Amino acid sequence: MGLMTVFILTGAVAIAAALGLLFARNAVYAVLFLVLNMFALAVLYLLLGAPFIAMVQIVVYAGAIMVLFLFVVMLLGAEELKEDGGPIGWQRPLALVLGVVLLAELAYFVFAASATKARLLPSPDGFGDPHAVGLTLFQKYLLPFEVTSVLLLVAMVGAIVLVRNGKRTADEPTGSDAD
Amino acid sequence: MVPTSFYIFLAALLFTIGAVAVLFRRNTLVIYMAVELMLNAANLAFVAFARQFEALDGQLFVFFVMTVAAAEVAVGLALIVTIFRTKHSVDIDTMRELKG
Question: How do residues B10-31 score in pLDDT, each as one tens digit?
Answer without folding.
Answer: 999 999 999 999 998 888 899 9
